[in-house]
């Protein structure tokens, strides 16, 4: 008789012990926010979940100063969630161009369509329901619910993680799951009563953005008072600049691409990128071959570029035009630029179009592509 080995019982990871949490944490944050916090941002004090949601999506990985102009233009162009849902995708991407992280824009458009189609044009007040919508994670859902409906829910964005790491002396990279889980437990434990949730949520955001900053925390510069300084573990142990611990460093992957600018009759050829992948759904200059991890595969030689360009029409001169390097979040891209003069364009499919040089400013172009065009053309033409 063959013995059946017993299944080893999985050892459950013990729940980390929380640091001692002061009873007046939320009280301090609220009192500071009411006196020193930000009160006049354009999306504040509106009671409009659409504007709150839009601002929260724009502010993901982007500073307030960079968002203000985009937000104003976006609201003017799409004043309601219904207007955004009904807009062509190209219009949405053009309005977003320059803010980066373009998946946010695609999710924004899709989310608006779902809110209109499935929720009667009204954003849900339940954070758990909000997280089912495209582009809305747990922290963003809590912020929308708190600011729009006064729902008692905990946020945990990058600024808040920095505040918690310093205030409570939390070691470890905040992106690691065990560390993040500990921070979520703290975020839930220090919430104020529902009536104070809006100033408290705004106060945490403001503290991280204006006082407990990454490079120049106010407690070290004396520029502004911090309401948490007397209880801050990092301040007590002289670890303010050490916490939170950074992401473990990895070598930045390198990729290369040969980028073609095809010109005909003062117009440039653009190609809509596939929805998935880099610059998804945006208009771009065509690539010759693929983006390649093998750096020596680029630049493509003039004969290869000429053969590729013949798909778009009759080819005239082909000239190399230099190289640009752009660093993304997860890799660095070396773009080898070539200028191709077309004597006669061919008929092309819908994902291709010739755009007048004077109209390029109306097209949503990724920043690196715009930079490539500025390099290839006279600056006054872009």
Automatic annotation (TrEMBL):
Cofactor note (record): Binds 1 [4Fe-4S] cluster.
* Top-rank taxon: Bacteria
What reaction does this catalyse?
Answer: Hydrolyzes free adenine bases from 7,8-dihydro-8-oxoguanine:adenine mismatched double-stranded DNA, leaving an apurinic site
Q: Which gene encodes it?
A: mutY
Query: Which positions are tagged coiled coil?
Result: none
Which segments constitute the HhH-GPD domain?
Answer: 58-210
**Classification of source organism:** Bacteria, Pseudomonadati, Pseudomonadota, Betaproteobacteria, Burkholderiales
Which Pfam families does the record cross-reference, listed alphabetically? HHH, HhH-GPD, NUDIX_4
Family to which the UniProt record says this protein belongs: Belongs to the Nth/MutY family.
Q: For this protein, what is the EC number?
A: 3.2.2.31
Q: Which cofactor does it need?
A: [4Fe-4S] cluster
Q: Which Gene3D superfamilies match?
A: Helix-hairpin-Helix base-excision DNA repair enzymes (C-terminal) (1.10.1670.10), Hypothetical protein, domain 2 (1.10.340.30), Nucleoside Triphosphate Pyrophosphohydrolase (3.90.79.10)
> Looking at its record, which EC class is this enzyme?
hydrolase
One term of GO molecular function: purine-specific mismatch base pair DNA N-glycosylase activity
**Keywords associated with the record:** 4Fe-4S, DNA damage, DNA repair, Glycosidase, Hydrolase, Iron, Iron-sulfur, Metal-binding
State the protein's purpose. Adenine glycosylase active on G-A mispairs. MutY also corrects error-prone DNA synthesis past GO lesions which are due to the oxidatively damaged form of guanine: 7,8-dihydro-8-oxoguanine (8-oxo-dGTP).
Official protein name in the record: Adenine DNA glycosylase
Native source species: Ralstonia condita
């Amino acid at each position: 008789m063959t013995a059946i080995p017993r299944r080893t019982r999985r050892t459950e990871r013990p729940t980390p012990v929380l640091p001692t949490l002061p009873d007046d944490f939320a009280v301090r944050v609220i009192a500071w926010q009411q006196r020193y916090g930000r009160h006049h941002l354009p999306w504040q004090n509106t009671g409009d979940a659409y504007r709150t949601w839009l601002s929260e999506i724009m502010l993901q990985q982007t500073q307030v100063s960079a968002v203000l102009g985009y937000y104003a233009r976006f609201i003017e162009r799409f004043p309601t969630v219904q207007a955004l849902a009904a807009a062509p995708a190209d219009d949405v991407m053009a309005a977003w161009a320059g803010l980066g992280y373009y998946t946010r824009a695609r999710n924004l458009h899709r989310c608006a369509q779902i809110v209109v189609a499935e929720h009667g044009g009204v954003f849900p007040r339940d954070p758990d329901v909000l997280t089912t919508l495209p582009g809305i994670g747990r922290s963003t859902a809590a912020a929308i619910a708190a600011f729009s409906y006064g729902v008692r829910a905990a946020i945990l964005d990058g600024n808040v993680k920095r505040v918690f790491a310093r205030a409570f002396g939390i070691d470890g990279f905040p992106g690691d799951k065990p560390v993040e889980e500990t921070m979520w437990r703290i975020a839930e434990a220090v919430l104020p009563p529902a009536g104070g949730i809006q100033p408290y949520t705004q106060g945490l955001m403001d503290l991280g953005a204006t006082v407990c900053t990454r490079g120049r925390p106010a407690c070290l510069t004396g520029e502004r008072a911090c309401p948490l300084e007397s209880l801050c573990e990092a301040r007590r142990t002289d670890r303010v600049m050490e916490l939170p611990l950074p992401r473990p460093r990895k070598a930045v992957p390198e990729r290369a691409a040969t980028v073609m600018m095809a010109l005909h009759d003062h117009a440039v050829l653009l190609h809509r990128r596939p929805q998935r992948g880099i610059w998804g759904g945006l208009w771009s200059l065509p690539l010759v071959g693929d983006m390649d991890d093998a750096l020596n595969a680029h630049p493509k030689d003039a004969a290869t570029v000429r053969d590729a360009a013949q798909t778009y029409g009759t080819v005239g001169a082909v000239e190399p035009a230099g190289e640009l390097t752009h660093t993304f979040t997860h890799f660095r891209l070396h773009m080898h630029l070539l200028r191709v003069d077309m004597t006669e364009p061919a008929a092309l499919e819908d994902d291709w179009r010739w755009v007048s040089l004077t109209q390029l400013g109306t097209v949503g172009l990724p920043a690196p592509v715009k930079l490539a065009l500025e390099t290839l053309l006279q600056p006054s033409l872009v």
